[in-house]
Amino acid sequence: METDVLDGRATAVYAGVERELARTCYPENFPILPEMPVARYTDPRFYALEMKHFWPATWLHVGHISEIPEPGSYKLFEQLGQSIIINRGADGAVQAFHNVCRHRAMPLVTEPQGKARRFVCPYHSWSYGLDGSLVAVPEERDFACLKKSEKGLVPVRSGLMRGMIFINLDGKAPPIDEYFAATNRELGDFPLEDMVMLKEITVEMDCNWKAALDNFLEMYHVSSVHAKTISPYLNTSSFLVSLYKQGHARFATRKRGANTIFEVDRPAHDGPSELFRDHTIALPMFPNSFMAIDPVGFGWQTWWPVSQGKSVMVFSLMGWKGDEDPAFLDTMVEQVKAIANEDVRLFAQLQRSLDSGVMPGLVMGYQERALYWYQEEIDRQIGAENIPEDLRLKQVLQPFAE
Q1: What is the dihedral of CA 55, 56, 60, 66, to 10 degrees?
Q2: Would you say residue 178 lies in a domain?
Q3: Residue 260 — very low, low, confident or very high, per pLDDT cuts 50/70/90?
Q4: Is the pLDDT of residue 5 over 80?
Q5: Is 182 inside a domain boundary?
Q6: Whole-angstrom Cα distance, residue 140 to residue 91?
Q7: Cβ distance 148 to 135 under 8 Å?
Q8: Which CATH number do you get for residue 64?
Q9: Given Cys at both, which of 50, 121, 144, 237 links 101, Cβ 3.0 to 4.6 Å?
Q10: Does residue 184 form part of some domain?
Q11: Mean per-residue pLDDT for 77-85?
Q12: Is the pTM of this model over 0.85?
């Protein structure tokens, strides 16, 4: 039955790509997208609403299980003004805790990644077990009525999706399997959990995080911006977009013949099906994750706000266990940086234009509907009643989401 479902979805992708190649006009019965208020990228009110209502309420990508391979392994997540320890407990379970000592709020961990038997505060040496429990307090006699059982590290809700680690800051997001049901379905037989994180690249950008994310949710710019890097590998006219509940989406784009955008003659991994070999399947995951699946390896991307007009983009380069070829990794890094630079060089200029106030709204075409879709979901997360009318989006795409 599972194979039948996978074959059915692959058949639907092939048929949809053919329809897109044959399309000559705007689709009937699809709404004309309202203009996107520019103030969503520039207004401090909207940034404050995002930080208060939106980011804490969603599942946020923080890493892959290969980064914390054994009990005691940990890595730090440091975005959104948070510092969170992602670790493996003594039983091998993935956990998350705020990186804050319960004594006087000193960070326990300062290295971005490592292994520890305990987490010991560098200030006064309060120490915590791998399960977050407070296990030792120097000069404990000086702390009247201290109940160590009540002063463990503050936990953060965490979960796994195909080997990728996510956290939910307010603890109220839907169950992770439900939240990523569409993504998990579209991954099909792609063995994401068998991959390893090879290298992380962080790019600083002088723009609102959404202005950067928008760029990766459409192919309209590729022939202009990536004429020598992406365009030779992908038939952008075949770009097929499917919208899914919770703000997620799926893109399918036919390849022009090469196995991979990174190296033409490198063989694809044996695991993925034919669909992933002759098409690039990209999965935008609300709120800020994106992977363009490549059977030889790819970059998992996330975008994070630093301030209203500054952000960072993080590439987690994924490859295959036992196939960590240094030369190929160098090729991946070089290509990822080259493509990113082609985009990032535009962002500061774009943000200045947004800030100028010349344009009250952005025009969105049919190929750009995924941009509008995730911003609709932002409003649903914040709550329309909390958003000033001049910043609010008209909700038009829900009838077109699967």
Answers
A1: 140
A2: no
A3: low
A4: no
A5: no
A6: 29
A7: yes
A8: 2.102.10.10
A9: 121
A10: no
A11: 98
A12: yes
**The CA-based dihedral angle spanning residues 163, 165, 171, 172, taken in that order and rounded to the nearest 10 degrees:** -60
Structural domain that includes position 141: 60-159
Give CA–CA dist 107/101, Å, rounded: 6
User: In this predicted model, what pLDDT tens digit does every residue of 261-280 receive, in sequence order?
Assistant: 665 455 555 656 788 888 89
Average pLDDT, the chain: 93
Gap between the terminal Cα atoms of the chain: 21
State the CATH number of the domain containing residue 263: 3.90.380.10
Q: Label residue 91 exposed, middle or buried (CB < 10 Å: 0-12, 13-18, 19+).
A: exposed
Same domain for 208 and 224, yes or no, is yes
Q: Answer yes or no: do 48 and 141 share one domain.
A: no
What one-letter code names the amino acid at 237?
A: S
pLDDT at 281 over 50: yes
Taking only the tens place, the pLDDT of each residue in 122-174 is 999 999 999 999 999 999 999 999 999 999 999 999 999 999 999 999 999 99
Number of domains in the chain: 2
User: Token digits for 221?
Assistant: 């710019």
Q: What is the CA radius of gyration of the chain?
A: 22
**Within a domain: 214:** yes
